[in-house]
Amino acid sequence: QEQLQALAFDEYLRQVFCGGFALSDPRSIVVKMCATSLVDDFAVGELMEVLRIEEEWYVG
User: Domain of 19?
Assistant: First the structure.
């Protein structure tokens, strides 16, 4: 489960940085903060919660 979450997080970051959010989107700020300095198990969990990524995203 945690490995899957970490993989999903990595892929999500890849999509965010390649596709990007609008600068006005608060999610872009959260993602960049976590990506630059807070990437650990706790931060991944917090980021997932903040962004409310749905379960279907992991499984699908």
Answer: 2-59
